[in-house]
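notes to self, project folder thing:

trying the whole complex as one job this time. last attempt i did each chain seperately and stitching them together was a nightmare. three parts in total, labels are on each line so i dont mix them up again. if this works i'll redo the older ones the same way
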Amino acid sequence: MSDDILDNIFENAVKGKSLIKNRKILTIDYIPQKLQFRDEETTTIAQTLSVSLKGARPSNLLLFGKPGTGKTAVVKNVINKFKEKSTELGVEVIVVFINAKIANTAYKVLYEIAEEMNINKTDKKNQVYFTGLSLGEATNRILDFIKKRQLHVIFVIDEIDSLVDKNGDDILYNFTRANEHFQEVGFISIIGISNSLTFKDKLDPRVRSSLSEEEIVFNPYKIHQLQKILSERVKLAFHDDVVTEGTINLCAAIAGKDNGDARKAIDLLRVAAEIAEIDKDTKVYEKYIRLAQHKIEKDTNFEIIKNSTTHTKIVLLAIAKSKNGNTGEVYEIYSSLCKHIDNESLTQRRITQIINELDQLGLISTNIVNQGRYGRSQKIKITIPISTLKEALFDDHLLSTITTTID
DNA sequence: ACTCCACAGGAATAACCGGGCG
DNA sequence: CGCCCGGTTATTCCTGTGGAGT
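result (full assembly):
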């Protein structure tokens, strides 16, 4: 890249008319004060929490809904208001918000809880270290802390399903049961937020019934709702008349077709605007939405591939090379590729697992086919452009000799 | 109706790692 | 230091299965 081009970029950034007035409003971190079309959900949550202002334990609450339906945003809004109100009234209720997926492991969830509640600073005996304790011990220390100080605690666990997927419901069981030992002076309430509607099935019946004392389902946004949401944001984030109505409609239509995901719709709009700015265009036209759609798709795939292990990458290559895409063929190609670069190959069992993981990530698609006498297999196909795959693997020197062999 | 392919995918278990504990 | 603990990855062993051939 020459200096001229760089100069241009910086120059434009300063003097060029940027289309976006306030970029923050288009990021995931921005939560509007009031979420449209979520009044009912907001009131229910607020009402449930409100009993704790009188010292009573609120019902446990379970929120379901697809990604981008406003679950987290609604809860955060209610919590913020609730915190304001409780300090105003001088009622001490501790609200801990944790995202189980970001925390990654059950232990880290407990650690985060301990950190949030300041246990580690205020109670030496009940410290929950960064690592080293058993899950049971860590849970006990937290519960002991709550009991000793007779605290009123509300745990909000976002993406609670990933916690249960990895560690079962032991922790939730202990938390929901803990109230029995508090002898009415302290309590724990849990607000669980889950993307998966089948989450409840994975729970032990006892946990299920106590955790879902109350339930709220967040339905996906309809296309016309997404339009309203988008135009609201557009007003705040862009200069006047920069985003056409057609653009908003297209954006809403794309996101609406795909689960009614408001987050995705807004992402789309932001990326489109960024492309338009680079193009020095004066408006965000519909074509930029389509460009943005491709860019987002490519970028996420690119990141996934780059961050995966060598074996996963080789499997991807093997799938790209395979003709029929059945498991046996893919595995054979995979093993030969391994031999080629002097890498020990994994067993077929592991490869089917990796294939499943890739399917989950949406990089490939699998289809189980029965061929009668010729057995039962999967039809595996790559769903991303080969060029993306090649680009993502370009930096990997280990694979350089075999990457070039795909067409 | 029966067989039997070519796997899928569950369960148990091992090997290894990072990190606190005594 | 060796030990324990939980997480992750991988292996071994296993049972299950839809339908083309016979």
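what i see at first glance: The first strand of chain A starts at residue 61 and ends at 65.
need to look closer tmrw
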